[in-house]
Amino acid sequence: MDEKAYPGRLPERERPWVMRTYAGHSSAAATNALFRRNLAKGQTGLSVAFDLPTQTGYDPDHELAAGEVGRVGVPVAHLGDMRALFDGLPLAETNTSMTINAPAMWLLALYGTVAMEQDAELARCAGTTQNDIIKEYLSRGTYIFPPAASLRLTADVIAHTLTTMPKWNPVNICSYHLQEAGATPVQEVGFALATAVAVLDAVRDSGQVPAERMGDVVQRISFFVNAGVRFVEEIAKMRAFGALWDEITRDRYGVTEAKQRRFRYGVQVNSLGLTEAQPENNIQRIVLEMLGVTLSRDARARAVQLPAWNEALGLPRPWDQQWSLRMQQVLAYESDLLEYPDLFAGSHVMTALVDEIVTGARVELDKVLELGGVVAAVETGYLKSALVASLAERRRRMESGADVVVGVNRYTETEPSPLTAAGAEAVEQVDPAVEAAAAEGVRRWRADRDDAAVDAALTRLRADAATSANLMPATLECVRVGVTTGEWAGALRQVFGEYRAPTGLAGATGAGGDPGLAAVRERVTATARELGSGRLRLLVGKPGLDGHSNGAEQIAVRARDAGFEVVYQGIRLTAGQIVAAAVEEDVDLVGLSVLSGSHLAAVPAVLDGLRAAGRADLPVVVGGIIPASDAETLRTAGVARVFTPKDFALTGIIDDLVTVIRHANDLP
């Protein structure tokens, strides 16, 4: 019997989704070489990771960039760097995703300029600028400007691309980071759609797009989602996303053409769900998470990028990224998935689950709109508080064992893993000389340009920012005359100001039902009494540009539940600011959270600052993605404890903090 004649098969096999790996490190030249290797292995699109200084609008020679240059992505400080990044890569034929938000306009202007230098037609260039600033205030922390000014930049980019780059996705509404910050599926859908409504309202109300072209705007809006290991629920979530997006774009924006209302999304599966303990288990997690966004044909991802098995250990090597690419290729080319129509049409189970998520997400969306929209919900702290509370509840379930994580809270017995036997060699190492080279390179760039032209371009940018003019023309002029990333962002900082988002700690609690917390609380009270102070005081600090604050916030919440007075000033602090706060607040312990890999630069700077301030006696602990060899270096430098992702039991960590304080004060 001819298997191709089976009923229900598609007339021809579907084309696979765009396959990417999220890549970038060290320098533009090194990343260009990595791109070339990945494309040669069958990758069908590029996904550019930028380093934290680039993402937050700083040049590599800025004080806050110390230790961060080239670590979590590629540094791009000016047009020359962008030329080197895409050297020899035909941009008109390459679908390019750029994970950039606050300076998205700037990076798109650099990209477009390089494309034109290649004689590529901008109208043919396809790709995405992430450009979703709202989730930065809630999870990733790479915001610069206040929410309203940031939305204005997003709307300007959308209006610009509508006429000049019609195949480009000018914004990528991100629910990915909301899930990592604690969102339930209902919150993830509701909050992401609230962001999409804010973006579309900003475009509509800017007066830059005629009402009859809102359908063209809607069809270029894409989403970037997270897929967790509960893949059946993830399938339902994506179907719910599509149903609600169709409803909103039809009813709120009057888009009548069904094709324009289609929910278009790319996906990265859940990186923060990967474990340092028994990291080989991450392989099956990644495969299951990929199924959640590929099995359902009617809600299938348009692009997929998978993390590597060792992302909980450090920066993946090219071989690790290749392994993740091969997972996609096996599913797309070896399995029969792409030969069939939707597998879940008519499923009573799936329909009920989708309806449940749709109903809950509508409630969340309506709640945000009643508050005045997503900007108001950010500024009042509502969204951040909701996510902190949800993440605290998720942590509580894992600590109690209600949610099983294999190798972490159950089945922890293990043989040594040959995958990690190489130690530090199991992850990519960034040469410390990269930062010095980048800093020297940007200084040379500044020295070789026309200063008068630069000053004139920045003056125009500031002047236009003070009006309602679209800022893309002024930004393109800045690109052409050699303005740097830090100078562009600095000019807009002068007009818009900088922003510090609410931390979301107020009212959050996550220790309900933890039987060990009472004993820790008694130790906290007793230690404070023995020291003659009212309460133990903990300073939680986020040095450098690392904006991933979820772990720091959960430590702060649990410490407060245990009776600590917690001092937490949010993200992006210099060593000097952390030291000043520790001295001024007279804290008993400093806890530093560093997830970007800059711990060997950021932590010693704080230790040196405390010594200079006469507080060498003040104990310091550190948490982050820290290899064993680096942990030993930090302990030798004076750090009292080093915590990594394998230390998942928060109450146990807080108990250890009390022990550190007692030891530092010679208490038994």
From TrEMBL:
- Every copy of the B12-binding domain together lies at 535-668
Please list the cofactors this protein needs.
adenosylcob(III)alamin
Q: InterPro entries given for it?
A: Acid_CoA_mut_C (IPR006159), Cbl-dep_enz_cat (IPR016176), Cobalamin-bd (IPR006158), Cobalamin-bd_sf (IPR036724), MeMalonylCoA_mutase_a/b_cat (IPR006099), MMCoA_mutase_a_cat (IPR006098)
Q: Which Pfam families match?
A: B12-binding, MM_CoA_mutase
Q: Which UniProt keywords apply?
A: Cobalamin, Cobalt, Isomerase, Metal-binding
Record's keyword annotation contains Chaperone: no
How is the subunit organization of this protein annotated in UniProt?
Heterodimer of an alpha and a beta chain.
- Which family does the similarity line name? Belongs to the methylmalonyl-CoA mutase family.
Spell out the protein name for this chain: Protein meaA
Q: Which organism is it from?
A: Micromonospora vulcania
